[in-house]
Write a structure and sequence with these properties.
heterodimer, A: mainly alpha, 3 domains, flat, B: 185 residues, mainly alpha, 2 domains
């Protein structure tokens, strides 16, 4: 498949969706049903690969591009993922000019408090999947305490959790 | 825009470091970046975070990348916005292709699975911590009714009625514009 077409189709899917996997129905319609360049299984593999690694769920688009057109397709997919992100800057400039308005400032602070609720809500399904035993709950609690009450770097907490997790499998084997 | 202006290189490194080590989707990455830029280094104010967070939700595409573009731009202009987006996504994109190639063997590895599960547990704690950090300054400003209404109300709307984050933020900003906070008067 022509990488330019890959880019345009994936950009279209990204531009009319507002979160990571919301673009999936459009990608499915274009790549599986209309152009027949991907099978259902390949699309599932792309989604699973995108979700298995770190970073945003929407990165699966890069895998779709790769499966449709090789490395040039992956580059096209990557460009389609990052292009819409820059649309935020004109919006930011527009609102920044009005930032001294008391009503706007109060509205922004209200969004901040709403964001606290949204992040708490987002942690619920994550916790449901991850907190499967006392050991995982202990990791979450220690992570909460370290990040809330110390200045330790987030990266160290993540790396320590990964090492402890792998260690729990390694130790019984040795 | 406001406050201290960190170097573009320092910002790019932090976006790369946190954007590619945080599992669980975009929200955990946003939380990790907010903690690093807002709480640890004080390069990003609460208001700047709120603006970037809300605008990234109304920008088409991947929210976390719009968030990186917005916060990078707020802290150090266009170059930081571009490097923020590239740093937070390019290594993950390469990894996604690599995982596509060897998907079965990579995710079937017991060590990898155990490490990812433990990281997700840590990320859960990190998200609760960040939520607490966002609400904490308002608790100290005798603004607890706003916290209960806006943070608690948001949680209720999401979990009980499954209202979309975008709709909730529209409601929250309307309430904020009508019910002025003491400091904004």
């Amino acid at each position: 498949m022509n990488p330019l077409l890959v880019y345009l189709l994936l950009l279209k899917a990204n531009l009319i969706s507002f979160s990571g996997l919301a673009s999936l129905p459009i990608v499915h319609a274009d790549f599986v049903q209309t152009y027949h360049v991907l099978t259902e299984r390949q699309l599932n593999t792309a989604v699973a690969a995108g979700r298995s690694g770190p970073g945003p769920a929407g990165i699966y688009i890069v895998s779709v591009g790769y499966l449709a057109a090789g490395v040039p397709g992956a580059v096209a997919g990557y460009l389609a993922v990052i292009t819409p992100a820059f649309l935020v800057i004109p919006l930011l400039r527009l609102l920044h000019e009005k930032a001294s308005n008391p009503r706007l400032r109060s509205a922004i602070r209200a969004i901040l408090l709403s964001a606290a609720g949204l992040l708490l809500s987002a942690s619920i399904p994550l916790g449901r999947d991850a907190l499967t035993g006392w050991f995982a709950v202990a990791i979450a609690a220690v992570s909460f305490a370290l990040l809330s009450f110390t200045k330790v770097e987030t990266l160290w907490v993540i790396l320590a959790a990964a090492a402890i997790g792998a260690g729990t499998v390694w130790m019984p084997m040795h | 825009m406001e406050g201290m202006k960190p170097s573009v290189a320092a910002l790019a490194w932090i976006y790369t470091k946190l954007g590619n080590t945080t599992f669980g989707g975009g929200d955990p990455t946003i939380v990790a970046l907010q903690r690093e830029f807002g709480e640890r280094r004080k390069w990003l104010t609460g208001e700047q975070f709120a603006l970037a967070f809300s605008l990234s939700r109304v920008t088409p595409g991947t929210n976390v990348l719009a968030f990186c573009a917005a916060t990078g731009y707020q802290m150090s202009g266009w170059a930081a916005a571009m490097l923020g987006v590239l740093g937070a996504s390019a290594p993950s994109a390469v990894l996604a292709v690599w995982l596509t190639l060897g998907f079965e063997s990579a995710v079937g590895n017991v060590y990898t699975n155990a490490a990812i599960l433990a990281v997700l547990a840590a990320v859960t704690g990190m998200m609760v911590s960040s939520s607490f950090a966002l609400a904490r300054p308002s608790l100290n400003r005798r603004a607890w009714p706003r916290v209960v209404l806006l943070s608690g109300g948001t949680l209720l709307l999401r979990e009980v009625w499954n209202i979309s984050p975008l709709q909730i933020m529209v409601v929250a900003s309307t309430i904020g514009a009508l019910w002025l906070e003491d400091e904004a008067r």
